[in-house]
Amino acid sequence: MTASSDSRIARWRQSTLAPFGHKVFAVFWWASLVSSLGSLIQTVGASWLMATIAPSPDQVALVQTAGTLPFFFLSLIAGAYADTHDRRWVMILSQLLMLLASISLAVFAILGWLTPIWLLAFTFLIGCGTAAFAPAWQASIADQVPRAQIPAAVMANAVGFNLARSVGPAIGGVIVASVGAAAAFVINALSYIGMLSALLWWRAPRNENPLPPEPLLGAIAAGIRYVRLSPHLTAILIRAVLFTVPISAVPALMPVVARDLLAGGAPTYGILLGGFGIGAMMGALSSSALRSRFSSDALLRWICAVATVAMIIIAQSPNAIVTLLAHVLAGSVWTLGLANLNIAMQLSSPRWVTGRTLALYQTFAFAGLALGSWLWGHLAAAHGLREILTIAGVSSLSTFLVARWLPVSIARMGSLDPQTVPIVDPPAVELDPASGPIVIEIEYRVSEDNARQFVAVAHELGRRRRRDGAYRWSLCQSLDDPQVWTERFESPTWTDYQRRLTRPTLADREVREQLTALIEGGRGKARRYIERPAGAMPLGGPASRDEPLDDTVSHG
Questions:
Q1: Distance between alpha carbon 232 and the CA centroid of its chain, in Å?
Q2: What mean pLDDT comes out for the span 243-259?
Q3: pLDDT of residue 522
Q4: pTM for the full predicted model
Q5: How distant, in Å, are the alpha carbons of 95, 259, 297, 460 from that of 475?
Q6: Is the distance from CB of 255 to CB of 48 less than 8 angstroms?
Q7: CA-CA distance, 498 to 485, in Å (whole number)?
Q8: Fold of 438-547
């Protein structure tokens, strides 16, 4: 072996295994591996049981839909709680929900009470627990490892999940074939004990924030607003849907492929699912090497092209070995696609809103999976399995049509770190934290030569202010003195005003510095007001002073 080969292997180990140097991450990785193993065994049991009690392809595909649909409506609530409350307790409560739903599913199976409706209902409840757990779990990775190791940690978790996927389905197939689906459900219930124990042991770092947490609806609105006003995050969400809708056909229709195209039973389905898991693990292990060679956007385009090939082979192959190899290929692009989109979202979000941006990513990704599972299952029942799998494969190429306008990118390392927390001068009048709206006006003097560039930079700063919580932002030019410009925006309450000032990042400071270079004196004159409705008692005159560009007051 050459020195260069040794060096490449050393770099691969460093990039892939570095997170395991942190005890908390290692403990959670093993607990997650056991939990994932139980979940995959349960998936085999539920899918095959549905294939026997309701053999129509669209009903079989509904098992995956029931498990992923909760991500569509519950992830945002979970993400808001993950950002504004103790993530550890959010995860503990969600694990308890999954444990109780799994125990109930096992009891119903043992007593012979399971019908297609009950099976879907319990699968749905387990999906609710998973949807509540996922945003807090993903956001907590930054509490377990340094930010630079987040990509490696995300991929290490993907390796663990797909290690379980590679052996769990085969084990599940054997269990279902020899003992029955009820045993698979019991094993899944037991698998939650490790994760619950790890969460009870862990003492997560606390983020000391003197401000009260945002109300739930306000926190959800803030997360949606942040993503809506962040073009690079919006691009990730759209590309996630374009990836997940086509690729969802593979796991959704896998039981029917095993039964109808390969004339097999539960062991055949388990082998296909195991091959899918092996491919997914191989994709995760190769991620660091691929990410070092390709940009996120180029890698995602290649992933979609390979997904097309894999699905067409599954649809048209008459040979079980070829079909298995195609599932291995599909599994590799499944993990590479979802994990790299996850990494892009996580590394492009500041910490104060990470739970909500990841929740939105999961909402879009799993909505795509749920929609695709239902769509391909319904179409396969009506028009034929081979034909619909082929169409699903070709539709994966849709990402090439939008990649130019919606590229996937990752923020520069460190650019989303928060600025120094500003010191805010108290108002000259006594305010209740809920008082408002608070109105900010910042007056600038700009020469005619700089005016055009100033307007462009000011509107970019305005987008970032609105993204961070400012309302009714506007930029006005004086009719009496054209060199005078006024920026105006609001915060609903004094607390919201203070909260917004903690959100600008180092990347935002670059825009502020551009604006500073265009205005006379490098400073704007900021004034803070509070709206007073008719009949309200006056509080006194608003504070008026020369202030820095970010409408706070520096000291020292």
A1: 14
A2: 89
A3: 79
A4: 0.78
A5: 49, 64, 35, 11
A6: yes
A7: 24
A8: Alpha-Beta Plaits (3.30.70)
